[in-house]
Structures are given as C-alpha cells and as structure tokens.
Task: structure prediction
Amino acid sequence: MRRLGMAIVLILVLITGILAGCTTPASQPQPAQSSKDLSTDVLVIGGGGAGLVSAITAAENGANVVLVEKMPAVGGNTIISATGITASDTQLHKDSGIPFTVEDHYKRTIETGKGLADEKLVRILVENSSDAYDWLVSLGLSYKIQSAEEPFWIVPTEGHYGAELIKAYQAEAGKHKNLEIKLNTKATELVTEEGKIVGAKVQGQDGEYVIKAKAVILATGGLNNAPDMIAEYNPNYKGVHAEMTTPGPTGDGIKMAVEVGAKLRDMDLFQMRPLSSNGNWYRETIITEEGKGGILVNLDGDRFVDETMKIWDLASEILKQKEGTAYIIFDTDVYDTKDGKKAFDLGKGIKADTIEELAVQLGLDPAKLKDTVDAYNAGQDPFNRKAMGKITAAPFYGVKTLPSSHYTMGGVSINENAQVLKEDGTTIEGLYAAGEIVGGLYGAGRVAGNNTLDDIVFGKIAAKHAIGK
Result:
C-alpha cells in the first residue's frame, strides 16, 4: 500500500512532468508500437537524472536516442533530491574565496565510504565535478556555496534542488528531435545476440515489443522501493519502509543486469534514514545532541537501544520492533531547536503537557512510558548511551518514525567508461550503466550531493562511450 509520503511525491513528479511536457515535445508520452519492433542508436532505460543526462548527451552528439520510463513522468529519485550538488574547484569556489579542492573532495568521498569505494571511479567523479557544475549553469540553473563551513555543498539560489534539475533536463531534452521519451513503458528484459546487448524487450501501453539498439544504458536506480530485495541482500533491513524514496526504484535494472551476467558489488550497503515519516526525514540530532533528551521507545513504551549508535545500525534496531516502528520522545528543550521543531511539524507529531497525556494520545501505556522517561532522567541506562540528557521541560512531544531506505550504495560494477562488467572483470559488450544502479562509488557512506554529480559525470561518460565519442 502506498504511503502518504509516496503519494505526495508521485503527485509532485506528475505535476512536474505535465508542466514541462507543455513546452518540451520530447517529454510527451509516446504510444507503444506493438505491431513492430523499433530501432535506435542508443536505448536509455530509466528517466531519472542519470537517464536524462545520458539521453541528452547522446542526442546532442548526433545519436538517435529512445528513453523508456516505466512511470507516467520522468524524474526518478532525482526529483526529491534536496541537498544540492557536491563539486570541487568550481568557479563559485574561486569567486568566493572559499576553497574546496579536488583533493578535498576525493578525501571526503573515500573517508565517508569507509575506504570501500572504487578509488578509480571516485577520482573520475571528483575530477569532472567542476565541468558538471559548469554544465548545469549552462542549462540556466543558478547556485551558491552553502557556507564556509560546508563548502562542498553547492545549493540552488532558489527553488527545490531536485525539481529544478528535472525541469532543466526536460527542457534540454525537448530541444533534440532525435530524442524520444516513452513514458509508461517498462523494460522487462535485455536482448542479446552473440554475447552483445542489442536492445531490450519493453512493455508499453499497447503491448510488448522490442527496441533494438547499438548500445543500452541502464539508469533504473536502486532498490529503495524493493523491501524484499533489500532484505535479501541485507537481512538486517527486513521490513524497511519506503518513506524516503519514490515509487520507481524497484530493482528492475539490477535484475536485468544479473540475467546477462553482470557483476554486482556492495549489495549489502544502503543509506538508511532511521528517523523518517510522511516522506520526510529528521536529523538524528533530536536524539543525539548532548545535554538534551530525545529517546526512542517502541510500541510497548520501552527504550530498546542506544539512540546515539551509527544510523545504519539504529535503523536496523528500530525495524526489529513491533511494526518496524518507534516513537521519538522529547521535551521543549529539543523542540525549541531547529531540528526538533522541523521533526514535530513534518512528522505530524503529538504534544501534551504531561508524559502520561502524551502516552494516551500516542496509544502507549501511560504508566510504562512514565517509568521509561523517569528511568532515563535518573541516568538509568542499560544501553550505555554516552550522551544523555533529561526529558523534563514541559510540554512533551512524540513523533512516529518509520526507518526508510534512502539510497542504494551497491549495484552493478562498471569500469572507467561506464561499461558494465562481468564477474571475470571483462565487459558486457553494448551495456552501460549510470546513476544509482552503479555500485562502487560510495562504499559504506555517501557524501550528500555526490549522487546528482555522479548522474552527470557517468551519464555523460556512458553516453559518449556508447556512441564512440
């Protein structure tokens, strides 16, 4: 069953697609042709950021391109990207006098990934980041550096980051008559001839047919809305929710790639948001800031974890509780912080003058929750939490959390040309990949903003190599 957050996101995707479609003919749905197969130079599967960049790049270099997207509008997970792009040694950095060098970028990416990322791919990513930024500016987008404290984040001067990206990509796609976008069209199987990928079977509004191509680029995203697949690759995340993703990333591309012999890597690694609901996530500071309260309780009203543990472990512990959920309990001291107020508002939280009243409104046992909070306030902690506070300043607040998969770190293995690799390290001829379907770029952790950067860098590489540029 779709959750409220997913419904809101889908509406946003649809509205964006419709508005852009009014001025960009290439973005209009094209009826599937079940009577005969189609042929093109490049077939792009997936219409998120990486797919759109790949398609635009191939088209502007003279190739005939067909992009298929199973959803009724393009956008993918890119459309909900909110942070900004991470880039280094850009003109913005030079003009502002706030440095963030390629080496800074490389070091931060490797360290955030706990040393598990492919160093060669990371080097390509960071060394091409300034050109990626310049390209976005050429599309009419405007950015600024977040701050001197966070010089790696380049954020839009106005508007929502992901929505503005997709709008610009759609406008650029609409300039190319040799680029056709087919919505409501799902790729179901890659087609091979003598070991080479030569197209894909697709299911459109009018039936199933084949699109033949000289090269295929997979840009189908990750597994964020495929909880069963997530649990298969990492049982710790069994029952994970889909609050922080869009409906599209259900692992289709991963499955198709595996069927033709693609090598996967890092498939047990995911970026989890332990604190999320209603399509939003909340900063962990509301339960980790030293000297303030913020605890998690399960549906029995008990604490069950050290709330300050690593976020991927915290998500796993919450998922072990009844209904894979918990309540964040905090007081006015936390609420008065920026993150506390945001969590309460976006999470549609509950407010009460006493802990007992709060428990009643949350559907918890009043005596049990009162005992739990009193024990915490007295410093009784069986979980050895290092930074403890107190929950004493009324009124008190409760917000439900549904841990969600936010980003798939693993995926298909690629080389420096974005060619998909087999288990033995050789390439699968005719098959390329870009975006969240790719594994190896991040390892165990992702620098926010690198994801839309890699859409551009490897989307362009995949397209250019696919057409021999």
Summary: Confidence is low (pLDDT under 50) at residues 1-35.
